[in-house]
Structures are given as structure tokens and as C-alpha cells.
Amino acid sequence: MARPSIVPIALTLDDRTGYTLWAPPWEEDGEEWQAFLGTTEEETARVHLFPSPAALAAFCRTATDHDLADHPVWPVVTGLGAADLTPDDDHRYDLDGVYDIAAENPDRWAVEELGATIDIVSRLAECLDTGDDDELDEELDEELEEDLDEDADGADDRVVDPDVDLDTRPESSGGSAGEFSALAELVARPEVGSLGLGVDAFAGRAGEDAWVGVGSALDDLWEDVLEELSAHLDWTGAGTARLEDYPSAAETAEDDEPDDDFDDESAEDDDTTPAAPARATAGATAAGATAVAAPAPGTSTIRGGRIPADPAAVAAAAGFWEGVGILPVELVVPEGAGLTLRCYVEDEARFLGRDGEVYLFASPGELSRFCAGDEEHDLVGIASWPEVAATDTPPLPAEQDRYDLTDLAEVLAEVADGAAGLVQQEALLQPVEGVRDVAEYAGLSRVDELLTPPAPLGRALARADREPTATLRAEDAAALRADWDEVVREVGSALVFRD
To answer: Alpha-carbon distance 97 to 171, whole Å?
Structure first.
């Protein structure tokens, strides 16, 4: 489970764009939650939308009566300005534009964007449905069983606390029932579930038919979905804005620039006046927000990554890859995210690559096509390689084989910038596992030096092994960040993104 984080997002609906915050799933007291910035009044849960990142920042600095107030990293959010609360491109969802996307050819970008849009609406519905929780659990379980039978959504069962509001809904990916029956029907359509499998699900004649089916499902249900959702969207910025303050879709890009007219002095005079304080230190974005592509229905992504992985599909593929002893791996570096393969020969890591270079591919399909080819590489000599070259099992990495090297850099930046006490030493361990393997394969001696005492990062890793639950200290984070940045540069020099 990823560490707690909060991500700024933008929603465009009825030609208006509003800004809010999403807390992706995190684990607390053994249970898994996700949340949006909002409140529940008169048994109706609403998400607060603001006309600009500056207005959102002003609300976050002063408001305490909302469903993210108890989130572990909310204290960090209260110190962020408009620039930090401006969503990246991967967290902008145009709910008006789904018909246009469905009318396009099903290339990777169309499939990912449409899947991400439906996914965020599903997550909103899960958090906003305040209907009877016992009935909701039963309906979600029924949808889950159907989805697994169809191998479409791959949703997994979660725990719902019956006494919770907007910030206590568990992660799920199969849509919501109750108040959101149209959405539940939409995500139950097999064609819509196929969005979680990526662009390869829409290849060939059968894929073309599936894409047509997606469009038909949207024609039948999307307007009803938006009507259900609209009843839960607060277009007043929690009483701080008027409807005419919200930019149209055409104005949104221009309005995303921090507004210099909103200064701290004016904010002190009026708590409802949007204000944009100085930008926080680089990396301190939205309490850990990273440039992550929102997952398609039934998917999860590595923070910072762009490669979706359907949980059911991953589980189905795991038997083959574990059987051949060669596992798919995802690496996320500042240049992007990519998939490769890794095995161990006499306890030494060996990657899909050549002469110390690790080959990375943008999708499971591209990696599979390379494996089926005849180009020489360092895994050809593995006894089970002929099975890999011939298989149609997609190379989908398990969670423990996904290494986001950019996320740790942002964690360290946040700790150095005041988020001390929120991040445990064990946050260092998983990404370093992947780094060590690449360094071993590519012969990166400098990486070994940085990961070994007496180097600061090496000492921190030794402590993480001894005391994984101890927290990272702000005074250590700056030095660790410098070491880690060098590690990432070294590792990046050994990665080759293939077409």
C-alpha cells in the first residue's frame, strides 16, 4: 500500500472546470481508505469544487470542517500555494469529452484517457454514496463476483466502515451501487471493463467491436451517470464562490496559472479570498502528489507511473511468469515509466537487455512483441526463454516488482520541507531493491558506494533494516535526497527506452 498522499485534480462538467483534492487509497489501522475534499450535510455527501487552484489553496489554509482534515498529511497541504495545487495533465478529467474520446480510434492515449475518466467517477461514487452500507456491501460483492467471472474489472473486496462519511470509503474499482445505479450498470458492461486491459484489448476485429461497445454503453448511460454525480458536486467552493466564477473548458488552461492578484495580505483580511502563497520547495506537491496517470477501471498504478495493471489480469498472469522464473518489472524514472523482464542467475540479477543496458518498453504489448522477435539480448540463453517468446500471457508486474524511483525523491523533499514524522524508514527499502539489481547488472559501482555505509544513504538503509518503522528526520532528508538523486541519475544512464 502506498503511503498516504493527496493529489490535486480538476473536473470539467457542463463546460465548467472545478478544482479539488483526492486522497488516493491509503491504509490506516489495518483498513484501506480513499477520500475527496468535501463534507456531508443532511445525509448528502458533496465534493467541494473551486474555480481556481488559488481559491483551493486559500480554502485549505483556513478550513478545518471537511473530510480531509484528519488525513495524515493534511498539515502539509495547508502550507501549499496555488502552483502546488495545480493538477498535472494526468489528473484533469473532462467529463464532457467522453463522447469525443470514444469517437476516436482506440489508440493508447484514447483508451487510457477514457479509462481514467470513468475510474475517477467510480471513485467519486464510492466515496459519495451514503446509502445503506449493508446493502451497498452486498451489491458491491455481487458486482465483484460478476466482474471476476468475466475477467473484466478485476475489482477486489474491501472493508467498509458503516459509520463513516466522505473520507472513509474504501478503494474499489467496480463502480458503486445505491445512489449510482447508472454508473454500476456502466462499469458492469464487459466492453467498459476491457478499458482496464489497455489498448491491446481493442486490437483486431474483436477489439474494434469492443470499442464500438464502449461507445454504445456511453450513449446509453453516460448522461444518467453525470446526473447522478451532479447531485453531489458543490460548485460554490464551500460557499466561497459563485457559479460564474468557474472557468469554461476553453479558459481552464489560462486560468491554471497562479493568480498574482491573490496575495497573502488580502487573504488575511478575508478568509474566503483566494490567495497564492509562495511556491513550496520543489517536490512538495500536494502532500505527495506525483505525476501519476489515473488508473482505468479495476486498475492500480505505481505512483509516478503510467502503465496500468489490472489486478485480476496480474494474478492470472503470475502463474506463468513465476513458472518460467522470469518476472515482469516496472521502473519509473524522471524520463518515464517502462516495463522490462528480470531473472536471477546464481543469485545475480539479469535483465532483458544487452551489454549492461536495460531495455524498457511503454506497454505490455510492446514488451511482448519484442520478446517474440529475434533480436539478441541477455535472456536468450535462459532455459525457459522459448516459453517466454511464445507465450501470449501479458507481462504484467506484481506490486512488489514495481519500482518508482521518482516517488522516493519527492518523499525526501517533503520530509525536508516539513513533513517529518509522517514517513517511515521502510519507505527506502522497496525502491532500493530495484536499484540494487539494476546496478548489479549494469556494473554501476557508484550506486553501490552510495547505498553502503558510511554514505548517508547507506547509513539510512542500514537503519531502515534495523528499525523499519522509525520515522525519517527532516535534518537527514536533504542529504539523503542528494544521494538518491545521484543514484537515480546513475541508474537512468543504464536504461534504454525502446520503441
So the answer is: 25
